[in-house]
Amino acid sequence: MGIITSHGVGVETNWEKIKAGESSVGEITAFDTSPYRGRLGAGIRGDTSAPVSRLRACRLDRASHLLICAVREALGEAGLIKPGIDVFLSLGTTLGGMLSSEAFHREVIEKGISRARISKTLDYLAHYQAVNLFKEFALTGDYTVFSDACASSANAIGHAFGLIASGRYDVAIAGGYDTMTEFTFAGFNSLMAVTPEICRPFDKNRTGLVLGEGVGILVIEELGHAMRRNARVCCEITGYGVASDAYHMTSPDPDGKGAANAMVMALKDSGFPDIGYINAHGTATKYNDLMEARAITKVFSSANNGGVDIPVSSIKPMIGHLLGAAGAVEAIVSIKAIVESWLPANINYVTPDPDCNLNIVTVGREAKIRAVLSNSFGFGGSNAALIFGEYK
Amino acid sequence: MTRLAVTGVGATSPAGVGVSTLAEAAALGHCVAANPISEAAVAVLRKIRRSAAITSYAVTAVEEVLRDRGVSDFGDCALIAGVTNGALNFSTGFHHTLVTEAKDTASPTLFSESVLNAPAGNASIIFNIRGPVHSIIGGPSVAVKALMLAATLIETRRAQRAIVVCAEERNELSSFCYSRLNPKAAWVFSEGAGAVLIEPVDELRPKLCTISGYAAYTIPDSPQLALQRAIDGALSMADLAAGDIGVAVSDYKTTPLFREIPTLSFSDCLGYAFCVSSMWNIILAAMACAGGCPVNLLFAAGLKKYAKHSEINHVIIYAAEEDGDASAIILSGVSES
Fold first, then answer.
1. Nearest residue of A to residue B124, measured between CA atoms
2. A-chain residues within 8 Å CB-CB of B102?
3. Strand order in the sheet with A311-313
């Protein structure tokens, strides 16, 4: 696994801070936020350039740099820096190289089209970053880049899981990435979705989301293949569900039918395991949290005879909403929760919302967890659910 | 492995709305007068009047597919959209506002309708498609990759059938960039959408053709090898030899790969619309496999110097890019399935 977020570089760095309930949210400095409703964000600090050997670093968008760093960590941990076999690369992103596009467009407006640097467009499109990974790591195989809004990387992982389960590939590199851009920040502000204060999912007084940036990468491998090469197995992916709301481009279906369908599909896929923790999408917008709470209640109250006592938390108050990377980073946190027997906290939660009647984890704590459900929902009514199980 | 068939097609192209106009344009070698848009399509477009052009193209093509097939229940249906550039006119408009105007006046519609999954999201809302809805991004190869994703969803029982649509819209700024980055390419950029419905083969269900094989491969250091592997993979899956293929179809960026097999391109009359061009090729090939007129005339014209290819049983459609991304799909006539 490989991670970069505002918490820092690396799975262990991120996990220690998540375990401690730390927040890396602060004032955004990458651009002027004064005209906007919200000013907070979870940007990655420090040098983010990746050492590259087969690419020209100056031509790469920040997204490619972050992605290369996280993939290098994941392949290194998996012992597959040189895979030597065909791999399937399955990525999710909402923006691709949007920062390059922003810079190019600004130059077009300020200097004119003929004087704008065309090199800024070389890593703009959302599939170029995938091709860059093939080049840098000398990969062969195939790739798919999902852009299903905030469910992008959960679907990327789910698709990789499906391809490996069907025997098409033995190894997949799956995950997602997105960078902090003014385009997105202005967009979510225009939708009144960004909070002017702190992010507090499922709290009665929640006022919206905080944007972040980051990458999450998982190396997914057919179990027999992993065992034959004595790889360390972190957990098993046991279920994936995906369904659409068919309701509205930016508002979730208030009844949460699509979200519930995705969760039920994942549970069926997984053989209805004993879910010990739900890593919620939990954006802290009024309608998304309400929808998710209703969907969780609908799914688990029927499965558990009326009560929903499964611990639930969202890690977005700590590292922000990572959009296309959210599902992948939250998948890694879900896996760490199983491996480390720890329930991450839903920090900033103060006032329970009677309409979101969930067992919110207010303070991180030890707990034996055998299976985790991780939810991801997005614009356009995309709903995805992944289930990770303890490897025995 | 589940055997799949193409059971419906839809298109919006420079020739107009509908696969018939697409086929006529391809057969004649130039765009003909557009047919009047159907009342059903007009009603659908009214619902998305604030959306980007790419979304209206996608939705119109999907509407034709569903009308063609006569499907009305989409609870078990997946929708996969293939996109290369997305709603560039809306996104450049939103950028422009941020740079030149008061930032807090930026339109939420420009933002939400410029996201890459807006065509798929809107289509799922309008047609009440509640199964898996995905948008995948890539160059011309993404049309086949979208079909492969749809096939995986059907095989893994996450959907019982799938609509695959590719859509693009022209944008002045991007056309300038592509032309400047590839001055020798002499592209004539185009726009529109193409959609197909794929379902498991069922003897009772009408179909245009079967999908015999497909593969995609990426080798940045060797684009030609990537294409060869994609074609070999598709042939292997179809259990065919290269000599079994009656005709190959590709776009004009791709060098003809086969000496023995005639290779057709429709880009001269339809223009180059990135992933949509590949989808138009798939649609035209599907219609040719079904013996649909006037597409058979088109193939006859293209094949006249190859007398032995009087019948088309298997068509390979392939796409390749300079960055080493390649894909291929083989469609077979119903009699061959």
1. A246
2. 35
3. A236-244, A382-389, A371-378, A277-279, A311-313, A359-360
